[in-house]
Here is the input.
Amino acid sequence: MILIQILVNGLLLGGIYALLSIGLTLIFGVVRVINFAHGEFLMISMYIAYFFYAFFGWNPYWSLIINFPLMFLLGMATDQLLIRPLRNAPSYMQVFATVGLSILLINLALFIFSGDYRAIDLPFAKKVIQLWGIYLNYPRLIIFSSSIGITLLIYLFLQNTDIGKQIRAIAQNRTAARLMGLKLNRIYMITFGIGSGLVGIAGGLITPVYYVYPTVGVYFVLTAFVVVVLGGMGNMMGAFLGGLIIGIVDSVSGYYIDPSLKETVYYVIFVLVLIFRPSGLLGQVGAEEMGMK
Amino acid sequence: MLKACFRLLGNPKGYFVILVFVGLLAVLLFTRNPFYLNILFMILLYAGLSGAWNIIGGFAGQLSLGHSAFFGIGAYTSGLLFVKCGVPPILGIFAGMATASLLAAVIGIPCFRLKGPFFSLATIAIAEVLQILAVYFKKITEGSEGLSIPFQPSFYNLIFESRNHYALAGFFFLLLVLGLSYWIQNSRLGYQLAALRDEDQAAETLGVNTFRAKMTALWISGALTAAGATLFSQYILFLEPHSEFSINVSVNLALISMIGGLGTCIGPLIGSFLLIPLQEFLRTWIGGKYQGLHFIIYGGLLIAVVMFMPKGVIAFFSRKYDSFLLRLPSFFQNREALPPPPREAINPGLSPFPKPGDIPPEKARTPILEVKNLSKNFGGLRAISNLSFSVHEGEILGIIGPNGAGKTTLFNILSGVYQPDKGIVKFQGLGVSHLNKSHILCRSGVGRTYQLVKPFENMTVLDNVMVGAFCRQSGRKKARDKALEILQFAGMAQKRGMLANEITLADKKRLEVARVLATQPRLLLLDEVMAGLTPVEVQETGEFIRKIRDSGKTIILIEHVMQAITSLSDRVLVLSQGEKITEGRAEEVVRDERVIKAYLGESHDPA
Here is the structure.
């Protein structure tokens, strides 16, 4: 019974990781940039959710209405102002740029909000549903079901809309896509926006359960890197699956090994993936270096 | 030897650098103010540490964002050995370097076989893991409470009463790093790293074992970082997981090199002189009052450098520095400083290539390359199916075929980029088809060029060719001589000082060939070296290819320029959809029904 409870906890936790990683992997797959500031976008949207609660008493879920468009714009701005001038530079320059943005945002938050841990105290956050002897935390259930919903939405969007098809075409072959007359810059910008917007949603959803502090994003983004590599870089379904797996690993190793060593466990998984299957769970074998220079 | 010393001393380049360092030494020996000495020590130490980072991050272009892993492991190894086992840090420093080398293997072996951002991610992950472990194993490391190192001043403990001595230790560490960097940059390893930073695959086909080169660089870089960390911990006398393994350390090392000039020897020193005082200033004056402000400036600075001066401060100063040096007087220079350009200096009679007549006729009939029943599929696509042919010594074999016929795939198999699914490739009687390592094939004598040219854009024409020459020569002087000789042979000696991205397409294509020639191949695979050239250039290239053959090489040529292929080739092989349609003399092949069909389709019926 305890094992089932742990697995369920892990699965629910995995929903958060999945939501974060889908955005990251989408940006990587299309724009070919690892956004090291991804976690800081999460941090910002958590602060927004927190302050709307603290000042106006808004339920954090309402803040999604602001968070998604705001992060969408922030993502597009990042792409246009930071990444666009570096499009043809070596990839490590783009890494430097996003690392710089990450440091800047973390410390800006530290400067403005100080390093205090803030939490939203909502009665419903502690609500638990009991189902066949398994305890399900209410807000975590919401996170999990919305992450499934959003993954499906994104999937449908990529499959069925014009922009979605263009995004997929560019992910598969930039050169061919350009020859077909696609406006690459516009699609990069939109993709960066969507990937960041997803983080905005994630931030609003997890604020009821997690503390808000300036380096909260670092904690999540490092996990998201593991998830993205595990799922196959640029592969959205892989990221979703990888998120759930890492969630379960997190919960199982936290209980059976030691809570303070759970990160170590998934970094070991990360290295094992690099050695034995660098293309990830769902990535195409041999494609792990696709398009990378 | 003595003469060389005098020449170095007399040259502004030599004596100015020596003067600067002697001046630095005097400053650090005679400064008495402990505040300035502290800053001086930090500048020297961080210049050394960042120089160590620069070996892998700059020279090799492998961006490590977790160098704190090497830093922390070096500091903890020597610190723990000292505190818990009483081993003096002067020995512990080597133990730290050894554990750092081990760590380098753990990170490098899985990551350097892959391209892309894996290495950056892995270094961050490893630094995180080490931090967690250092906190977790409290019994050994004292965990988050930190490990205090007792203040026992002695040379063997690397603990000094005078800060001047610390500064001196930092100075020697910096000298070690600078010396090693300079040596690497001018050695075979340095050329190989610069090449693979620009074009991994092209470096590999020029005989560079890219995995080994990156691994060596990481080893040196990690071990030096660990050594610097020991000096630092014996200065601070306190170790704590969250500061030793912090990502701030890693970013700091990268940022210093970046600001000074990525991939240059002296860049980290300049960066350190700019950044460390700024950092100390921000920490002392602002840091206490406003949390995070100095890292805001840091982050902003990193972005600004990347966007507006990606080559670092050194790019602004290098020209001024050169003209400043020119104005300084020279001494003991009884000879011209620069070697005379090798215009007509090389006696053509000294050509290292055997002339066509040198090849005995019976040898000319033995195949140098044999391909039997070769097949290669990509998923459901049959790129090559059941292909057999052979090439004789001293022959030019032309390969033609419509687009998608499998020509370039064939070259990729012959040069070890791909492994075939089935079949045998024998080069000089030895099976090579399953080596799957381009650099081994290059060393055994197969050279190839790429249809889409892949010059090392940030290197000069001469350096490009030298990368190839290093395949057989280990000394820089010999490689340089060889490269100059090849450039002379290729008629590009005048352009040797130009950057490879500044020359015309025709020259890039010729450079591609010259570079491969420098690896001294016996078999040359030329992939569309004439595509996109003007008729005159095509003619010149044709003459060049004939000249290469006459110097004793065997050539396989993929080409679409029909006229060139018919005039150059001894034999022509026609591929279509991965299969051999026919082979034979050029004039016969072009009249073959099946060939015309393959090019123009079924409907073309002369009847």
